[in-house]
Every structure is written in structure tokens, then in C-alpha cells.
Amino acid sequence: MAVRQNVKANFFSYHIIMNKTKILIYSVSFILVMASGFIFGRYVFKGNSSDLSASTTVRQGSEQNITDSRENAITRTVRDVSSAVVGINVTEVREYRDPFGDDPFFRQFFGDRSYKQEVQGLGSGFIISDDGYIVTNDHVVGNATKVVVSMTNGEHIDAEIIGKDSYSDIAVLKINKSGLPYVKLGNSDDAIIGEWVVALGNPFGLFEVNQKPTVTVGVISATGMKLNSGENRFYRNMIQTDAPINSGNSGGPLANSVGEIIGMNTLIFTGNSMAGGNIGLGFAIPINKVKKIVDTLRKDGKLERNYDIGLRIQTVDKNIAQYFKLNNVSGVIVVSVDKGSAAENEGIKPEDIIISVNGEKIGSDADFWGIITDMNIGDKITLKILRSGSEIEKEFKLKVK
Fold first, then answer.
1. For a tag site, which of 184, 214, 333, 398 has the least CB within 10 Å?
2. Which position among 82, 124, 139, 365 bears the catalytic label?
3. What gap in Å lies between CA 285 and CA 290, rounded to an integer?
4. Is the pLDDT of residue 204 over 60?
5. Has 15 been annotated as catalytic?
6. Same structural domain, 173 and 218
7. Which is it for strands 196-201 and 214-228: parallel, antiparallel or unpaired?
8. Pick the catalytic residue: 138, 165, 169, 352?
9. pLDDT at residue 257 above 50?
10. Of 82, 250, 356, 364, which residue is the catalytic one?
């Protein structure tokens, strides 16, 4: 019995030892398999990760190359200038006459009647300083009772009219904000015919759609252009461009290809009084003139033109040229001279024909007054005159009335 019990004990001990051995072997095998899998997986995924990273780097590099190839002077100019371009929204009260007011029948019952109406207008402008000074056209501001500036960040800010000048068609606004982006003013005397230019602004109010200025591109077609709007505005030495300028672009900047503002978009020729679109003839006020006027408006709020040279003039036409036996139909003829004026004191007489002012040829009375309105009290004026077939010069200073 004892022997049998020993045999059983040995048998169970043997099986227990064998089971433990198997468990140990299985455990070690499992650990080895897991370790191998981990090492293999790490190697494989590391390789794939490197491949993915390399692929991403190649793709990003390719996209960067494409972007670099598309980047040019025009896109850089747009990027640099756009944030300083604004939309100008104007509310103006205008007075209208009753359409029947001139009819004697209606006037005897109702008298002369008129009514006032609010009119909304829009235009463009550009910020010239980080403390909120903005330049635009005088004809954009008009007789506004309220001016609101639309910014590229979506803000709408009330603006104060600091000063405006109808003769030069330039106005200065101010918004109560600081740290603003602003443009770099260039030198319009350096403008090159044929160089690329970019016109930015708010044509047809599109600025309000996405708070970004519309961009058009062209070249400088001509410089030194003289224009007369017939509204007591004198446009001299204008920059002509074929960059499309449409209604609402007035007051916006004209930039060269290095991001400098060389003009303020002001006029378009449509070729037809019934058309409102661009046909490739747009005009900008030279920025050198804008800078000069803006400096005075910021300081004094207006330009002092309280002078009178004492001359009444008329454009020389074919009949006048024929009567005085002139070789060219150009210049202005003196119709009368005010007594005691600077012109009389200098000896200028009726029937004198003025052919140039300060060395600039005169083609019409608009040319003459355009030059005079660009001058200040105390400036010297030199007239070249035809008198009895001979050329003479007269010189005097502009004085207060």
C-alpha cells in the first residue's frame, strides 16, 4: 500500500513538473513571438512613416514651387496695398425743384416748390497713415452729411471730413482708429509710360460683398494729360492708364509694380454719354499733387485761393486767330483788365494774347485757370504774351484780393 501510494505520488509529481515545463515553454514562445512582431512592426511602420513623411515633403515642395512660380510683382503689390484700400459710403441730402415749378399755371397756385431727398453714393479711398487719415476724391464726398468707411476686416467706421478742395478734386477723411495698415506714397514724376500699374477700389460697390478691393491691371498709357470736366475742376498732368477703372473706383489708389502709390483714380472716358463702362481710358491724379494738397488740407482744412489777378480772358478760336493773323489757334486773349490789379500794374492790356504761363503752353482758358488754381498767394506768375506780332514777358506775384 505504501509502495502504491509512492508510485501515485511520483506519477502526479511527474505530471505537475511536465505541465509547468509546458507552461514555461509556451510563455517563453509567446513572449518571443510578440517581441518579434513588435520589432518587425516597428521596423515596417517606421519605414512607411519615413516614406509618408518624404512624400508629404515632396508634395509640399512641389506646391511651394508652383506658388513661387505664380508669385510676381503684381501679386506682391496687391498683397502689400489691398489692406489699406477702403470703400467710401456717402449719404448726401440734395434739393430738387418740383418738375411743375416752372409752369406758370401750377406756380400761381402752388408757388415755387422744391423738396429734399437723401442720396446714397459710393467710392474708394486709401489709408495714408496708421492713425486713420484717408484720401479720396472731392466728388466722392460731395456735400455729404455722413461718411462711412468700409474696412477690409469687415468694420464700418464713421469718418470725419478733414478738408476738401473742389478745384483739384481731392478730399481728406479721418477715422478714429490707430495701428492701421497704410500705403507707401511714391513719386509720380518717375512714372514710366508702358510700365505695369494696378488699380484697386470699390467698383459698383463690390467691396461690400467680401470686404476686399477689386483689382485690375494695365499699363501707363500716357502722362501729362490735361482734362476739363466742366464742373469747375481742373485736371492737369493726369496719368492715363488702360487698367480698367469703373464707377466706384474714384478715389482708389493706382500703384506701380513695386507697391508704391503713384496716383489716385479719378476719371474714365466711356466713349458714349449713355455708357457707364470702361473702354481703356482711365485717368489718375498724380500722387505728387495729391501729397501737396493733402498736406495743406490736413493743416488748414482748405486751400486759400483768395486772389484775383485782375484778368478777364477768352479762349482763342479760329475767328480770333484769323482777325489777329495768328499762325496757331491757341492761347487766350485778354478781354479786360481790372483797375488797380496786379495785371494792370504790370502793364498787361486788353487784346494781349497769352501763349504760356510759367513756361507751360496755353491752349484754352481751362489751361490758364488750371495753372493758376495750382498756385498759392505769393507765388510768382510769368506770362508770355503776343502783342502786335511780338513776344513779350510780364511777371508779377499773386496777392490777396
1. 184
2. 139
3. 7
4. yes
5. no
6. yes
7. antiparallel
8. 169
9. yes
10. 250
Using an 8 Å Cβ cutoff, are 353 and 332 in contact? yes
Examine the domain organization and report whether 254 and 315 are in the same domain: no
- List the beta strands (DSSP E) in 287-331: 311-315
C-alpha torsion sign, points 280, 286, 287, 292 = negative
Q: Which residues contact 65 (CB under 8 A, 6 or more apart)?
A: none
Cβ-based neighbours of 154, under 8 Å, separated by 6 or more:
211
Which set of grid coordinates corresponds to residue 160? 470725419
Domain-located, residue 74? no
Q: Can 139 be counted among the known catalytic residues?
A: yes
Report yes or no: 352 and 386 within 8 Å, Cβ to Cβ.
yes
Query: What tens digit of pLDDT does each residue of 53-76 get?
Result: 555 555 555 555 655 678 899 999
Cell numbers linked to 210: 467680401
Query: CA 85 to CA 212: how far, in whole Å?
Result: 8
C-alpha span between 215 and 155 (Å, rounded):
20
Pick from 236, 390, 372, 388: nearest CA to 306: 372
